[in-house]
């Protein structure tokens, strides 16, 4: 795409003003008024969601080592501010694949979000569009892709590869016909992750009707009436709508089998085939090795998401932040994005300083939708945006592109060689 489109709506309040309002505090009303940071949404959502649904969203794989290390990787980096930089004109917008966004973060794809909140996929996509940030619709979603694209036309779509070339072709045709411009292909799921926590919390896909499940639902009446029954009454039984060109399995079924396409036979040749067929932007999600980043670049990917799937696939997989610098070096012209563990504005800026152009955040936005629908997601976006704005100012930079390793100090290793001055002469 040659020209830069913008998703900025001039009628929206200036984000700096929003940041100031958030800083002043106390003006918000509603269910999320006392939620002050993204992490706050988890406890609030736990009170709203039935145990299996909350467990599915919050949980990761096996011993949660990958999920926990995602946070530790951010904590191990300290920030090094510059002072007296006149940051009055700072702005946090970034351009991704020719589209200007108002913040350097977006909403990650999350399966079955329509079980966390009524019309959850639409809630996330609309809130993101209004805020001028990207949102990615999951291939494991319960709302037809076409409806989401109609409600929020700039939404990105994330696909898991269906098992055969014919089914891949058919899905790509459907995705293109729906008006998707940015396709994200997730490649870290040759087999399903070991989600023991799902078994422990009673979650399965499809959900198996049982007394236990009925009890879990009955103890969360707001969710039961506001999300589940409202969905069933207005839209019927939710199905996996976007795994293939055609409709998939229902979410609640005594026939416990889901269309899990066999994916362990996929290799780079399949991605090459997709690159030949897909004329829009192609992003490969789930890269952790610089060797794979180089491979993605060679086959013509436009971008990659450095990601360990929020710790939900290979437990013990390295935290994306730790491999980001090495991957950014291999990326060439590709746009490098990152997800997994981003919870604060400072995390966003740390990832940007190490070479990401933007980051994606998952669970907190899902919880925000569960707690207060679109208003909840608006609030979560405002909080993170205000943090980014405030932190840019205190770091002494006017925009995301000015961030670099000179702003980071590794608590264990100190400065990387040459990073302390970011290539500038001290005193300059
Ligand atoms: C789906 O991608 C999941 O992580 O549950």
Summed up, what is this model?
Pfam families: FMN_dh. The chain has 428 residues and is an alpha/beta fold.
Topology readout:
Blueprint: E1 5-6, H1 15-24, H2 40-48, H3 51-58, H4 65-75, E2 77-79, E3 94-96, E4 99-101, E5 105-107, H5 120-131, E6 136-137, H6 145-151, E7 156-159, H7 165-177, E8 182-186, H8 196-201, H9 211-218, H10 221-235, H11 268-277, E9 281-287, H12 290-298, E10 303-306, H13 320-330, E11 335-339, H14 345-353, E12 358-361, H15 363-395, E13 408-410
Parallel strand pairs: 1-4, 5-12, 6-7, 7-8, 8-9, 9-10, 10-11, 11-12
Antiparallel strand pairs: 2-13, 3-4
Helix pairs in contact: 1-15, 2-15, 5-15, 12-13, 14-15
Bound molecules: glyoxylic acid.
Structure, described:
The protein has 428 residues and is an alpha/beta fold. It has a single domain (32-196, 258-404), classed as Alpha-Beta Barrel (TIM Barrel). The chain has helices spanning 15-24, 40-48, 51-58, 65-75, 120-131, 145-151, 165-177, 196-201, 211-218, 221-235, 268-277, 290-298, 320-330, 345-353, 363-395, and strands at 5-6, 77-79, 94-96, 99-101, 105-107, 136-137, 156-159, 182-186, 281-287, 303-306, 335-339, 358-361, 408-410. The chain is globular and about 70 Å long. Residues 1-13 have low confidence and may be disordered. Bound molecules: glyoxylic acid (GLV). Residues 111, 140, 309, 312 line the site of glyoxylic acid (GLV).
């Amino acid at each position: 795409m040659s020209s830069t489109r913008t998703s900025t709506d001039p009628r929206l309040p200036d984000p700096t003003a929003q940041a100031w309002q958030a800083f002043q505090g106390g003006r918000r009303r509603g269910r999320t008024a006392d939620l002050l940071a993204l992490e706050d949404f988890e406890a609030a959502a736990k009170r709203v969601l039935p145990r299996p649904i909350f467990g599915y969203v919050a949980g990761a794989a096996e011993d949660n080592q990958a999920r926990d290390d995602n946070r530790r990787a951010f904590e191990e980096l300290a920030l090094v501010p510059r002072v007296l930089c006149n940051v009055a004109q700072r702005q946090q917008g970034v351009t991704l694949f020719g589209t200007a966004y108002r913040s350097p973060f977006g909403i990650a794809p999350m399966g079955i979000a329509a079980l966390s909140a009524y019309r959850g996929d639409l809630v996330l996509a609309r809130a993101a569009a209004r805020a001028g940030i990207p949102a990615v619709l999951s291939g494991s979603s319960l709302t037809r892709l076409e409806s989401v694209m109609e409600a929020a036309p700039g939404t990105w779509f994330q696909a898991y590869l269906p098992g055969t070339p014919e089914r891949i072709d058919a899905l790509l045709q459907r995705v293109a016909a729906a008006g998707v411009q940015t396709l994200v292909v997730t490649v870290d799921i040759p087999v399903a992750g070991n989600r023991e926590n799902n078994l422990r919390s009673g979650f399965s896909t499809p959900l198996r009707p049982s007394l236990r499940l009925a009890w879990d639902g009955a103890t969360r009446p707001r969710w039961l009436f506001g999300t589940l029954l409202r969905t069933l009454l207005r839209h019927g039984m939710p199905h996996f709508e976007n795994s293939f060109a055609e409709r998939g399995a229902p979410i609640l079924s005594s026939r416990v089998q889901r269309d899990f396409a066999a994916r362990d036979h996929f290799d780079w040749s399949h991605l090459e085939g997709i690159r030949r067929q897909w004329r829009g932007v192609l992003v490969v999600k789930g890269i952790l090795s610089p060797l794979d980043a180089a491979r993605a670049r060679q086959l013509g990917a436009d971008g990659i998401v450095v990601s360990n799937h929020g710790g939900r696939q290979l437990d013990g997989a390295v935290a994306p932040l730790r491999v980001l610098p090495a991957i950014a070096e291999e990326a060439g012209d590709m746009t490098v994005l990152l997800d997994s563990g981003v919870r604060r504005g400072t995390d966003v800026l740390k990832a940007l300083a190490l070479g990401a152009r933007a980051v994606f955040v998952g669970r907190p936005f899902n919880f925000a939708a569960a707690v207060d629908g679109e208003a909840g997601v608006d609030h979560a976006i405002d909080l993170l945006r205000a943090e980014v704005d405030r932190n840019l100012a205190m770091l002494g930079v006017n925009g995301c592109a000015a961030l670099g390793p000179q702003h980071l100090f590794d608590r264990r290793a100190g400065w990387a060689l040459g990073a302390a001055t970011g290539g500038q002469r001290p005193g300059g």
